[in-house]
Design goal:
Two copies of one chain form a homodimer. Chain A has 506 residues and is of the alpha/beta class. Among the domains of chain A are: 146 residues, Rossmann fold (3-Layer(aba) Sandwich), CATH 3.40.50.980; 94 residues, 2-Layer Sandwich (GMP Synthetase, Chain A, domain 3). Chain A is 29% helix and 27% strand. Chain A contains 15 helices and 27 strands. In chain A, the strands form seven sheets. A seven-stranded mixed sheet of chain A has the order 11-10-12-13-14-15-16, with helices on both faces. In chain A, strands 4-3-5-6-7 form a five-stranded parallel sheet. The longest helix of chain A has 17 residues. At the A-B interface, helix 1, helix 7, strand 16 and strand 17 of A face helix 1, helix 7, strand 16 and strand 17 of B.
């Protein structure tokens, strides 16, 4: 179970079939095998030895994926960087991971001098794009000119990559994932499909430095599929790529699905090749699902929930599940290789329907956080990864993610999940929109604070709201303070930015 | 990745759905969970501790599978016995594996006293059938009356079972398989299907003491399916079971397929629920495939090739492959989690089309032969399991098994090692020289054929020879045809040229 294994299999079984199509470059499995073994040779020549970390700062291009394979081939560890980070954030990760050699794609050349200055330990920067390499940097062509080397067949629990996750609490953490864990998530998620899209094309449009985008590439390889990388999402580009390459499988986030299905040109494209549409990051609204089902009428839908620390998929909402309207808000249930439960702060499983922390175990759990044994021990306890997500499980094992635990309010020693309170308040006829946050409180530690936009012409006061809430939920969950606003701070995706709300009020 | 994991998942997700149907006993996942945890409790009370070996001599019944789970639950190791063996053969395996406790199904009660006498170390025999336990033996009900215990969650590379395979050199060898290996073969083979039969019923008719029958049970569990065990194969029983339980998946050997599809009653049964028909042990003839495709018109066909030592599946001939007449004699190509190649005696890969030994690697390779480090080292070299099967690979990676390097005969789905039969026949006073080969047979796939030179003045007939053999070895190993010759083709070294013998008779 390892990342380069599917390439060997594909070369043995269909050497002349297409491994990847990117712009005007179509490469067969055999050609990619050659390319990968030469890039690995180039890394060896450059002193990259067993377990060394090699950075990768690139959009989704064919070379991104070839380099990932080459790094494993050379017995090294890939450290993909979030392309949206600032140079400072990148330098933090590269430094912490002791990255020796860094691949940089064309659009990120402007960051190179700052990275160089910040990282004296960075021995070499290789331009992995198609533009000529600026002076002082190594061209990918130099590596491609090296003698090929044999695959190290790095596998099993050996470290495959360090995937940095956005620091919710300041500095990012490097998630160490094994070859086995990533492979297991990919092959096990494929087995959870109803119809398995062998040998077709996978569209790789979700950024592959995130594990969701990385994992769908691996799943495609396991199914011997052709990779069609797209460096940037745009709805027309996605439709054209599906049509041009007869794409059978793709992963999108719901925002992307919405932009495709609501695009005025959507009916001018033939999307009937799609057999598997995987989405993650959040459930899909009923209305959007209905539109998406019409547009992708040939596709099985699969929602995958998880996190980088879980390689990443842990629960799956199957295509069949999507037909049950009561499950539309669910993140699905435990994947065949995963165990999932909901626990209280003492790690005891809570009854079904009770909100607690979602935890998961299995061989897809991360090896740990790089150089952070304390955080690792906090996150993985007795083999169970603590996701930090609050949720509950219904009688059939379906998991509902209600909130980040960090959005949980602890008031008078009781845990209050803001989403639960928001769902109640939203039913009040005077309420147009609502967000519930915790605010520091002398008496309660934190108090439940409701921020509400009222419907036109309506009025609302705290006493009435509390009474309304207490008909449905415990008194300690009812808001202790109320604030009427006319508008909310919103994210680009139109989601209320609760962190901003909180920060403004603390 | 472990055998009891799917039970936890099923109890979490569909506690009241059916785990198994056997005769008039239908048990839900929740009931089987209870049963398994009590049998495990009973084993603990009886001194079965971590890593202890527990034997299982049973036809395919629901209890067979519940006991397999209970043994893992109790952190112990299952040793399933070939039910066709003589008591002497069974005693050999039970003794070698230091089995402490043995479950015995009703039909095998007559063997108990012989086993007891032969095995002073066997502490306890538990009657796992539905008949009352004879005096001195423990009833399964006693274990079911014990307090349930928690699952040990024995997993990963921990030993799951010791599966004895027919002895090529006289004595059988105990193949040690890990939980991960068996789970990987099951989940990875499911991912290789085009249509995955989630949540339906699996018919378990191939004997589960063989790994093919065991593995299809595990695959069914991974897909949250209902187990429908059948203790003995008969074609009408199979058709009725498919109809009664709306069976979606089953594994048969080609001989069984033939007996079903050619049965006069076949058109009186509704077999349209079948989505996946898996077969193994040997390829299927073109004519039979054509008839089978008509009878199982809704099913995807999958041929799985492998061996006990490979947990067991290693190459797969997909449903789509079956449409290509040129592939009908192939055993398929490397499964997604397996590496396969053809090597010469120096372990160098041979060119495509050249016959050599089929070898395979991956995390599904056995842990080794029980107490046989020398044989293990011979079989698994540098991570590659040497199958002992001769074969070649075509340009597209399809493997063709041409010969058994160790002269194994596959008759009715059972492995017969010719040397074992030769050793018995050679003891007959009328026999001067003997060679046993497999010949193509309509009914059995291959039949055991004995070529004998008789001693001067002596005579021998088939009936007498069969009776003689059956005193020492299972009936299926006894020759089904006999040929008297005056001389054998010999090699320069004076060794009988079995390949020549075979070629002259095919």
């Amino acid at each position: 179970m390892y990342l380069t294994q599917p390439l060997h299999r594909a070369v043995q079984q269909m050497p002349d079939a297409t491994y990847s199509v990117y712009r005007d470059r179509t490469l067969s499995h055999r050609q990619v095998y050659d390319r990968v073994s030469r890039i690995a040779g180039g890394l060896r020549v450059r002193g990259v030895s067993k377990d060394a970390r090699v950075g990768l700062l690139s959009l989704n291009t064919d070379t991104f994926f070839h380099v990932c394979l080459a790094i494993a081939w050379a017995d090294a560890v890939v450290v993909p960087l979030n392309t949206r980070w600032t140079a400072k954030e990148m330098a933090y990760a590269l430094d912490e991971a002791d990255v020796e050699v860094l691949f940089v794609d064309d659009p990120f050349m402007p960051l190179v001098s700052e990275l160089r200055t910040a990282l004296p330990g960075l021995r070499e920067i290789i331009c992995s794009g198609d533009e000529p390499a600026p002076g002082g940097l190594t061209a990918l062509a130099d590596l491609l000119g090296e003698d090929p080397v044999e695959d190290a067949h790095r596998q099993g629990e050996a470290l495959a990559g360090i995937f940095y996750t956005g620091g919710t609490t300041g500095s990012p953490k490097g998630v160490m994932l094994s070859h086995r864990g990533i492979f297991l998530s990919a092959i096990g998620s494929a087995a959870a499909l109803s119809r398995v899209p062998h040998d077709g094309a996978t569209l790789l449009v979700a950024p592959a430095f995130h594990l969701a985008g990385f994992a769908i590439w691996v799943q495609g390889m396991v199914l011997r599929m052709t990779a069609v990388p797209m460096p940037r999402f745009d709805p027309v580009g996605v439709m054209r790529a599906i049509e041009d390459h007869r794409v059978k499988q793709l992963l999108l986030v719901p925002t992307m699905i919405q932009m495709v299905v609501d695009h005025p040109e959507v009916h001018r494209h033939d999307l009937s090749s799609v057999e598997a549409l995987v989405y993650g990051a959040s459930p899909i609204s009923e209305a959007l699902l209905e539109r998406a089902r019409k547009v992708f009428s040939t596709a099985g839908f699969m929602q995958a929930y998880g996190m980088t620390e879980l390689s990443p998929t842990t629960t799956i909402l199957s295509d069949e599940d999507h037909n049950d309207p009561s499950l539309r808000r669910s993140a699905g249930r435990a994947a065949p290789y995963a165990r999932v439960k909901i626990v209280d702060p003492a790690d005891e499983e809570v009854p079904r329907g009770t909100v607690g922390e979602i935890v998961a175990s299995g061989e897809h759990v991360m090896l740990g956080y790089w150089k952070k044994p304390k955080e690792t021990a906090e996150a993985v306890r007795d083999g169970w990864m603590h996701t930090g997500d609050g949720g509950y499980m219904d009688e059939r094992g379906y998991v509902y993610v209600v909130d980040r635990i960090k959005d949980m309010i602890i008031s008078g020693g009781e845990n209050v999940y803001s989403i639960e309170v928001e769902n109640v308040i939203a039913k009040h006829p005077a309420v147009a929109q609502v967000a519930v946050i915790g605010l520091p409180d002398e008496q309660w530690g934190e108090r439940v604070h409701a921020v509400v936009a009222v419907s036109p012409g309506a009025a609302l006061d705290l006493d009435e709201l509390r009474e309304f809430c207490k008909r449905e939920i415990a008194g300690y969950k009812a808001p202790r303070s109320l604030e009427i606003v006319t508008e909310f701070p919103l994210s680009g995706a139109g989601k209320i930015l609760k962190r901003t709300l909180r920060d403004q009020r603390r």
